[in-house]
Design a protein that fits this description.
The complex is a heterodimer.
Chain A lengths: L6 H14 L1 H13 L3 H8 L1 E6 L2 E2 L3 E6 L2 E5 L1 H13 L2 E6 L2 H9 L5 E2 L7 H4 L2 E8 L3 E6 L16 E5 L3 H9 L4 E5 L2 H9 L5 E5 H10 L3 E5 L9 E6 L3 H16 L2 H15 L4 H7 L6 H34 L3 H15 L3 H11 L8 H26 L3 H9 L4 H31 L11 H12 L3 H31 L1
Parallel strand pairs in A: 1-5, 1-6, 9-10, 9-11
Antiparallel strand pairs in A: 2-3, 3-4, 6-13, 7-13, 8-11, 8-12
Helix pairs in contact in A: 1-15, 4-10, 4-11, 13-14, 13-16, 13-19, 14-16, 15-16, 16-18, 17-18, 18-20, 19-20
Chain B lengths: L7 E10 L2 E11 L4 E5 L6 H8 L7 E6 L2 E2 L5 H8 L2 E4 L11 H11 L5 H14 L15 H13 L5 E5 L7 H16 L3 E5 L3 H7 L2 E6 L2 E6 L1 H6 L4 H12 L1
Parallel strand pairs in B: 3-8, 3-9, 6-7, 7-8
Antiparallel strand pairs in B: 1-2, 1-4, 4-5, 9-10
The chains are: A alpha/beta, B alpha/beta.
The complex binds adenosine-5'-triphosphate and magnesium ion (MG).
Chain lengths: 496, 249
């Protein structure tokens, strides 16, 4: 019920996957045609892996529990129930909503429970269980406007916000034709946009609307007035995993029969949302200091990813630069093709390709995929920095050195590189700084870096701006520290 | 090496850059202790010829024989070993700007010949003394005048004890008042018996120091003669025109 599948990304990844592993795909098809081993495999593993995008309270969100982050919410309870009924353990894997279905198709997760609507379009690529929950549609408005607005019809000529590609966005487009649609990626940003008058209402799911209204001052819930024909939220499984669907439907039948969602799951999620404390305590725990461990962990991941990627990016970049400058025609073409291709495609797509595309052949964990993607990407840029640094040294230097009997390697080492480094170093510093910033893209596949953590803190505290400010400051400290360090070395080098 | 066999022998040397045939058919010999001055109009291929001698440029066809070895047939490693025996001095000096003068001179003896730093230093200082720049050992190239830099470049090449010295217009980039000091060093070198091939526009130097003058134009060596003969009775029309223009200026 949140974001619809982003078609272009899906196409790109799929095309890339198909070109790389045609045999594997057809093997999977054959397996489907024969028998369905999905349930048997889950039971043998002893665990059921659930994919979810935890920025959607009360369905799923991350809570600071004794300083540790924990994914909680109504969907998690549903997942636990399904796993328990299968007699296995539930493992929760988090990632961006956009990445969930690919993760399912590529076998990174066994099922997806993420407030996802069983739309016919999605049903083309996955199999859905019965709906386990059907929510309504609401609008969030500023409390001060409560006399002005009653439902979507009150917003003629005004702007309404909704999540990019979401069902709500479609509803606004189709039914609130007189209103302008403003979309944003995250619910937190939408609420922030509402409070800062970017638009006058936000269309969200009923349960979400209530959760936000309860935890954010100055906003309230009104009926949407949309005519909705929704199948409700369902569990998504790999296409053809009929045994899992059947098993899950049994659990869902019980959930419905006992009204577990309203009786148990939602109240439990609500407790997490309120923190299970008095209002005063709740506010205290929403202060940024209470989330310091999140930011520390985020900085840790960001530094870890960056440091390893800088190292390998530099190493591979240097190799590529020398391949490109060398005399071997094949090596030169390979290096040139690599550099041009990597620089000509977005890091985002490269990351998704490595995580999902190569994931079909070998299962690479998200963190490792992130490091590989950022390293491989950076290598192309480093290679160009090194190459142009070397090319900027006059040919006369090489000729003088070779005429003295120094080999190619010795010439490079004693004559060219020491001079080239003075050009390369500052440009390399810039490249490393942008690597740190761009590494933030790994949050898309659920790597818990600084951006990811700031999103979690936003969702958890219902505070949109403060986590962003802190994240910005932290990034700045890291990048400024690095560029200062590079300058120290630069000065040292120029003194030699 | 006997007196009879030439130090360098060039047979049917051709060199093209793409469709541009720069050297069409060069045949020449340089004997031990000889000083050859190579003159000719701009673009004639003089630099290209010199660079083909130590294979900084790969000849398109033909042979370059040095110390009885056919250079175009040699591997990269073997070439490195022969290149160190052919010192080369460039128009633009090409000193290594990130090294002091003495480090410039020490680099090749230490890294190529494996000489100790101490021995290389002693040798470098002696060579600097010969070119009159002993006091500049610890200076950096940028602080030297063009004439001083070129003398260092000569000392740097000599540090490898080359059999032959190749000069490509060593004084063309110099202010006129500095030309003399460099020519003087080269003349001393010639007197000590160094085999030299010098591309130059300094007709005075060619007249006084060369054993043979080669005149190059249109991709061929048009004339080879003793300087006396070449400057008084040039045989080809090309050479006569060239001399008329140069001597007039
Ligand atoms: N690396 C190269 N690539 C392509 N063409 C070249 C190259 N080096 C030289 N040439 C061409 O070869 C021809 C001869 O050049 P060369 O430098 O040997 O002449 P030169 O006799 O030394 O002239 P000058 O007196 O101006 O130094 C010129 O037409 C030049 O453009
Ligand atoms: Mg020239």
């Amino acid at each position: 019920m949140k974001k619809a599948w982003r078609l272009i990304e899906a196409l790109l990844v799929t095309v890339l996957m198909l070109t790389i592993v045609p045999q594997k795909t057809s093997a999977a098809d054959k397996q489907e045609a024969r028998t369905d081993n999905y349930l048997r495999n889950v039971k043998r593993k002893g665990e059921l892996v659930m994919g979810t995008s935890p920025d959607f309270p009360p369905y799923e969100f991350v809570k600071n529990v004794n300083g540790k982050s924990k994914v909680v919410g109504m969907d998690i309870e549903v997942g636990k129930k399904v796993a328990r009924d299968m007699g296995v353990k539930l493992v929760v894997r988090t990632m961006d909503f956009d990445s969930l279905l690919v993760a399912l198709e590529t076998g990174k997760v066994d099922m997806v429970i993420s407030g996802m609507d069983a739309t016919p379009k999605r049903a083309q690529s996955v199999d859905f269980s019965r709906a386990y929950y059907k929510s309504g549609q609401n609008l969030l408005i500023r409390t001060e406007d409560q006399d002005k607005y009653h439902d979507y019809k009150s917003f003629a000529g005004k702007a309404i916000g909704a999540q990019t590609g979401s069902m709500q966005a479609t509803l606004i487009k189709q039914q609130a034709k007189k209103s302008k649609l403003k979309t944003m990626d995250k619910d937190n940003d939408l609420v922030l946009g509402l409070k800062t008058h970017k638009f006058d209402a936000v269309a969200v799911d009923k349960a979400t609307a209530e959760a936000f209204a309860k935890n954010t001052s100055g906003i309230m819930v009104i009926p949407s007035g949309f005519k909705v024909d929704s199948a409700g939220s369902a569990i998504a499984f790999h296409k053809g995993a009929k045994s899992l669907v059947k098993q899950a439907n049994k659990s869902i039948a019980e959930i419905k029969q006992k009204d577990l969602i309203n009786q148990k799951y939602l109240p439990k999620a609500g407790k997490y949302l309120a923190g299970g404390k008095s209002k005063k305590e709740n506010k205290a725990s929403n202060s940024m200091w209470a989330y310091k461990d999140f930011f520390i962990a985020g900085v840790g991941y960001t530094l870890f990813i960056s440091a390893i990627s800088v190292f390998f990016g530099f190493l591979l970049g240097a190799i590529l630069a020398f391949m490109r400058l060398g005399r071997n025609q094949i090596a030169r073409s390979v290096a040139t093709a690599y550099i041009e291709f990597v620089r000509g495609t977005p890091l985002m797509v490269q990351l998704l390709f490595i995580y999902f595309g190569l994931g079909l052949i070998i299962n690479i964990p998200a963190l490792l995929s992130g490091i590989i993607a950022v390293s491989l990407n950076s290598a192309a840029y480093v290679a160009e920095v090194i190459r142009s640094g070397i090319s900027s040294i006059a040919v006369g230097q090489t000729e003088a050195s070779r005429s003295l009997g120094l080999s190619r390697t010795a010439t490079m080492r004693y004559v060219i590189m020491p001079q080239a480094m003075k050009n390369i170093w500052p440009a390399l510093g810039n490249e490393f700084v942008s690597l740190i910033k761009e590494s933030s893209i790994v949050s898309v596949i659920g790597v818990k870096d600084l951006i990811y953590q700031s999103r979690i803190v936003q969702a958890d505290t219902y505070r949109g701006v403060m986590p962003l400010v802190i994240t910005m400051i932290l990034y700045f400290i890291i990048t400024f520290g690095l560029s200062s360090l590079m300058k120290v070395f630069e000065r040292k080098m120029n003194h030699d | 090496m006997t007196d009879k066999s030439p130090v360098i022998k060039v047979e049917h040397l051709q060199k093209s850059f793409g469709n541009n045939k720069v050297l069409k058919d060069i045949n020449a010999e340089v004997n031990e202790g000889q000083v050859i001055c190579l003159i000719g109009p701009s673009g004639a291929g003089k630099s290209t010829f010199l660079r083909c001698l130590n294979l900084l440029d790969q000849p398109s066809s033909g042979k370059v024989i040095f110390e009885n070895k056919e250079l175009t047939a040699l591997s990269e490693d073997q070439l490195d070993q022969l290149r160190e025996k052919m010192g080369m001095v460039f128009q633009q000096f090409n000193l290594f700007p990130h090294m002091s003068i003495i480090e410039n001179i020490k680099l090749a003896p230490m890294k190529v010949k494996g000489m100790s730093s101490k021995d290389a230093e002693a040798k470098g200082l002696e060579l600097l003394r010969q070119v009159g720049l002993e006091d500049k050992a610890d200076a950096f190239p940028a602080s030297l005048s063009g004439g001083q830099q070129q003398r260092v470049a000569i000392a740097r090449a000599l540090a490898m004890d080359p059999e032959v010295m190749l000069f490509d217009e060593p004084t063309s980039a110099l202010d006129p008042e500095m030309v003399g000091e460099v020519l003087k060093v080269m003349q001393d070198l010639a007197q000590k018996g160094m085999t030299m091939v010098v591309v130059t526009h300094e007709m005075g130097f060619a007249k006084n120091v060369a054993d043979e003058v080669w005149f190059m134009a249109d991709g061929y060596i048009q004339e080879k003669a003793a300087p006396q003969q070449f400057f008084t009775q040039p045989q080809t029309q090309r050479a006569q025109d060239f001399l008329a223009r140069v001597l007039e200026a």
